[in-house]
Amino acid sequence: MAQAKAVAKFWITTTDLLDHVLKHEKRIQLAEPTKDGRIVHRLVSDLFCRYVQLCRSLERCYDQTLQAQKRAVIQQLLEAGQARMLELRTKLQEIELSEFVYVDGALQEQHLIPDDVLAVRPCYFPARRPDELQALLDAQKLPAFIEPGSDAEDGSSSDESEQPEEEQVPVGKGINRPVVKRDRRKERLQAALNLITAHERARQARVRQTNFRLHPDRYYPKPIDEEIVDVPYEFFYRPGQFMLYPLKRTVYNWDFRMKKKDVVHFAYYAPPGWEEQTVRVASVRWPDAKELALKQQAEEEAAAELAQVEAAKRLEEALERIRLNRAAAKIQRYWRKFNALKAQKKHRFDRSKFLGLFDDYEPKLGDALAVAEVRAARRARQPEFDRSFVAAIADEKARILRIRGPALLEDITDFVRAWFREWYDETLAFDLIPEPFQGGTVLIVRGETLTPLEYLALERQKQLDKLKTPEQKKKEADAMKAAKEREQEKKQEEKARLKELAREKRARERKEGKTYDFTEPEFMTNAYLTLEETLARYRKDWAFVNELDNLQDLPIMEWITLDKFAEVHQELHAEVHELLKSERELLQMALCKDERMKYKPPKPKKPPRAKGAKGKKRKEPIDPTADLSVESILNELVERNVLKTCRKRTFEDYIGDFNYAAFERRNRLEQDPPPGMGEVRTILQSYLYGMGPLAAPKPKSLCLVGPPGYGKTLLLEAICNETGSTLFDLSVDTCGPVEPNNMAYFLQLVLRAARLLQPSVLAIEGVHRAFYKKVPQPEQPLDPAKLGKHLFKLIVKQLKPEDKVLLVGTCDQPWVAKVGPLKKCFDKILLLPRPDYGSTVLLWQYALRRFPTVPRDLDLSALAKVTTGYSAGQILECARQVLNIRRRMQFGRKPLQVDELLDHFLAGTTPQYPIADKEYEKFVKWHRKVDKLAKQRAKVMRERQLLAEQMAAKAAGAKK
C-alpha cells in the first residue's frame, strides 16, 4: 500500500513537472525571431535539459504503474516526450553542426550535473518476445559471435575466458601430427593446485620436525627391544605423485627422528656392535724434584699461553661487539627510514584521498539492491494486471450483450423503420441504406443521411436538367471545365509562389544567416501538440478520480462500460444492416408494384481505393520465403552460421570520460574540439529508444568507424545485450559460402527472420570489405562485393520505421571502400575518438582495480599522462599480461610500480605505440567526406580560420 501511494504521489508530481515544461515552452514560443545561433542554442538546450528530466520521471511512472488505463496514458506521454527530446537534440546537432552536443550553459543555469542529462537505459529494455518465439530461439544451439579466447579488438579478454586451442606440428613432408587439443585453462589450474599441494606438504613436514625437536618426550616413541637399522632415504617414483620441484626435498618418513636419539644412556640396553671394555689399573709412581720443576715450568707456560689466548679472545669479542653494534645501528637506521617512508606514504595517501584524487569509496549496495528488487517485483506484476483488465473488458462486453443487446436491436430496427415511414410519407420513396464502409445504419441514427426535402430538391433539379438543350448543357460543361482549370492554375501558381519563396529564403539564409522563428513547425512539432492534448484529456477525464483512493490499482469500470457499450452498438448495427436492407428492398418492390413501375435493384457500391492508389495497381514483389515456417527459417540460418550469441556486455563496459572543456572551446573560442569517449556511449543509447515496445524515432543503420582496439565490437555486443536483440552475423566470411545467384534469397530470408524475432541486430564486422574499391587477391574466392550489391536494396530500403531492426557495421579501414555505396547504406556514421587524459585515467583504474591487491595510491595521473593516446584494448591487455597470477603473489614483498606497466609497452620484443596523428587523421578526413554535419562544420571552421587570418593581416598592416 505504501508503495502504491508513493507511486501515485510521484505521478502527481510528474504531471506538475510536465505542465511546467509545457508552459516554459510556450514562453519560448513568444520570443522574437533571431539569427543569433547562440541565443537559439541557449533556449533549445535549456528546453532539452527539462525534457530529459521529464522523460526520466515519466519512464519511472510507466515502469511502476500497475493500473492499465493510467499506464496507457503514461505511455502516450512518454512516447511523445521522448520524440520531443530527440527532436530538440536533432535541432542542437543542426545548430552545432555535430552529432555531439554540449549543454553546459543550461546545466549551470539549472544547477545540474552532466549525469542528469545523459541518456539512460529505458525500463522496457531488454524487450520481450512472444513466449513461443523465445522458446524456439532458446532451443537452438547458437555459436558465439566472438570466439572465447580469441584476441578481441577491444582487448578485454581475461584469463578466465581463454579456451583450448589447436596445434598442428609438421613432422615431415606431407606428414603432420594429429591435432592436439589443449585445455590451457585446465593446465594452469592443475599447475597451481600442484604448487599449492607441494607447499602444504613441505609446511607440514617442517612442523613435524619442529615438534620432534622441541618436544621429544611427547613426540618421540618409546624404545623397543629390537635392532634399529639406519635406513637411508632414497627417492623413488610413484605414479601420480608430483615432485616437489623447485622446492628443497624434505624426507617424509620417520627415520630422521632417530638420528638425534642417544640410545646409550638407556638402562639395560646396548646399541648394536657395542661391547663393554674392562678398565686397566696402572701402578702409581711419585715424581722427583726435576720432574716437579719441569711440570711447574710447563704449567707456567700453559698459563701464559692461556692468558694470551684469553686476551686474544677478549679482543675478538670486543671487535665482534663493535661489529654487532654497527650492524644493529645500521638495521635501526634502515628501520627508522622505512618507518618514516611508510608514515610519509600513508600521509600522502590520506591527503590524496581527502582531496579526491582517487576513489577509495566502497558503496554499500544493500539499500540500492533492495530498492531494485522491490521495483522489479512490482514491474513483474504488470502482466497480471493486464490480464485482469482484459478479462474485465470481456466480462463487461458479455454482460452488455446479455442485458442490453436485445433492447438495442429493437431500438435500432424501430428507428430505421420509422425512417422508412418518414420518407414514404413525404416523398413516396425509400432512400438507400448506406453501406457499412460508409457508416451503415449509424448515419441514419445520427441524422447524417439525406433528408426528404433535400431528396425532393435533387429530383427537381434532375427534371430541370433533362429539359435543358444540348447547347445549354455544353455551355455549362465548358464553364465547369474552365472553372476547374482556373482552380488548377491557381493551385499551380500558389505552389510555384511557395517554391520561389522557399528558394529566396534559402538564398537569404546563405547570405545573411538563418532566422530562427519559434512559432514555425520545426519548433511546434506534432510531439509537442500530442503532449498538450494528452495532458488536457487526462486532466479532463481524471478530474473526478481520486488516485490516492485506488491503492489496489483496480480498473475504472465506468469507462470500460461506456467504451464497450459503444462497441456493442456498432456491432449490432452491422448485424441489423442486412436485415433492414432486405426489408427496404421488399418495400421498394411493393412500391414499384403499386406505382406500376419497373423495379431496378440497386447496384452494390464498392469501397473506395486507398488514398494515393491511382492508375494501375502496383504489383507487389514476390516473396520467395512466404511458404517457409518459422522453424525451417531458423534451422536454415543456424546451418548457415548466421544466428549467433554474444557476450554479456553493457555500455558501462565502454570506459571513457567526457570532454568537459568542449563547450567553452566550441561556443566561446570557436574551435572544433574532439568528443570524449563517454559522449559516444550517450549518443548510442539515445539511438536505441526505438528498439523497444514504445514508438520512438531511430536510425535504420549505424556504422562504427575507428582503429583496432577502440571498442567497436564491444559497443556492438552492448547494443545487442542492452536491447535484448537477436544477433544476425552478416559479415563477409559468413556470406562467403552463399552463391551470388542466391544472395537475394539469403538476404530476404535474414530480413524476414529479423522481423519475426525483433528486436534484431544485423551485424557486419569489417563492413568495408563488402564495398572494396579493389578486392585483394586472398579475398577474391569469397567475392565480398556480392553483399554490398544487395545490402541497400534488400535490407536498408526494406526496413520500415516501425521495425525493431537495426543494421550495425564496424569498420577499421574505411578508405579502402567505395564512399558512395557505403554512405548510402548507413544513416549514422560515428567515428570513435581517441582516449584523452580523463578517459585514460578511467581505463587504468578499471584495468587495475579488477585485481583487489593492487595498491589504491598508485600514481595513475603520471601513468595516464604518459600513455595518453593508447587504445583501450592496449591498456586492458597490458594490465592483464603484467598482473598475472605470479606477479600478484609477489605484491606482499614487491609492490607494483608504474615502470612495470610502461616496460610492457616499450621493453618488449616489439614495442607498442599509440596510433600516430597522421594515421588517425586519415579516419577524420574520411569521416568528413561521408558525414553531412562534419562536412558543414569543417567548412565553417575553414571560413572562420580564413577570416581570422585576414583580420590578423589587416591588424599587422595597420601597425606598420
Would you write up a description of this structure?
The structure is a single chain. Helix content is 57%, strand content 4%. It is mainly alpha-helical and 960 residues long. Among the domains are: 404-511 and 559-595, no CATH class; 628-834, Rossmann fold (3-Layer(aba) Sandwich); 837-956, Helicase, Ruva Protein, domain 3 (Orthogonal Bundle). The chain has a six-stranded mixed beta sheet with strand order 5-7-8-9-6-10, with helices on both faces. It is elongated, with a radius of gyration of 45 Å. Residues 149-153, 155-178, 244-263 and 612-616 have low confidence and may be disordered.
Which structural traits does this protein have?
960 residues; mainly alpha; Rossmann fold; Helicase, Ruva Protein, domain 3; six-stranded mixed beta sheet; two-stranded antiparallel sheet; 57% helix; elongated
Question: Number of helical runs?
Answer: 31
Major beta-sheet overview? 6 strands, mixed
Radius of gyration computed on alpha carbons? 45 Å
Helix content: 55-70%
The chain-level structural class is mainly alpha
CATH superfamily membership of the domain at 628-834: P-loop containing nucleotide triphosphate hydrolases
Q: What's the CATH architecture name of the domain at 628-834? A: 3-Layer(aba) Sandwich
Q: Based on CA inertia axes, which overall geometry fits?
A: elongated
Q: What do the pLDDT scores average to? A: 81
CATH topology of the domain at 628-834: Rossmann fold
